[in-house]
């Protein structure tokens, strides 16, 4: 049985229990070798190989749990940190390079509204009533709307994109990643409130100073997994005479590793390259005569 004694002294680490961030968080924990077995009936479980307990919570509740110091560390989206008005109480320790999306004002594509200002005084449906309220509050003020004439912000918990078709709203404020959901609902975006990604957060006023070394260790491990997902190792052979151009193309993080080959005119080069740039880099290496270009994914790293 899991009771308060079992949790006492452990670092509490909040993980989204479902939704878009859940699977990615499990991959991060596995990459950082944080081992646990979760009973599906319980939202708290002990980590086997560290003095940590994982707490599985809705992503939108995690900012206030961390901000109030009820848990020590958490993963959630920057959007829900701002929506819960917890920015002053939580510290963003590390961006995690997933859960990337934008909070946008959307309206029916075929309709008359083409700018957010035209929605002022009308009905807006959203799960982000604080952020949408602030945004349209500013527009209301700029356009001098007050009282009953102000933009009407209404909360729904999900499936926000259906609101316009159902006749409940003139526009919505919701998250967009690929845009598939928005387009399927016949909507298009006319303004962006914020960009968001998943972040590792800790309390700005931690209750347990003694846990700080463990927080640092976990942060370093997770940073290693995140960096590994951003980089590849690029290895190739190139003529010594082209080495200057080659190192300009693949400068590495500190410097590329250069090894001699049996053929004295040639060297082997090994270098970390950002994954998103690798196709261009391979094209450019080919142009300067590099051969045998090999790309390796990283499972983990410390850089
Ligand atoms: N389509 C998306 N692409 C990338 N990140 C997203 C997307 N939708 C949401 N997110 C991020 O994930 C966080 C959690 O949202 P999500 O909708 O997955 O949670 P939920 O509402 O608890 O789950 P569910 O929608 O399954 O009930 C959001 O605050 C946002 O940061
Ligand atoms: O631009 P896209 O790639 O289509 O992603 C955007 C959708 O993802 C989220 O919904 P989710 O899947 O969490 O469902 P929900 O609306 O029920 O929360 C968000 O609320 C959008 O509806
Ligand atoms: Mg959702």
UniProtKB/TrEMBL annotation:
Pathway: Amino-acid biosynthesis; L-histidine biosynthesis; L-histidine from 5-phospho-alpha-D-ribose 1-diphosphate: step 1/9. GO terms for cellular component: cytoplasm. Keywords: Amino-acid biosynthesis, ATP-binding, Cytoplasm, Glycosyltransferase, Histidine biosynthesis, Nucleotide-binding, Transferase. It is an enzyme of class 2 (transferase). It is found in: Cytoplasm. GO terms for biological process: L-histidine biosynthetic process. Its main location: cytoplasm. The keyword Transmembrane helix does not apply. Belongs to the ATP phosphoribosyltransferase family. This is ATP phosphoribosyltransferase. It comes from Fomitopsis schrenkii (Brown rot fungus).
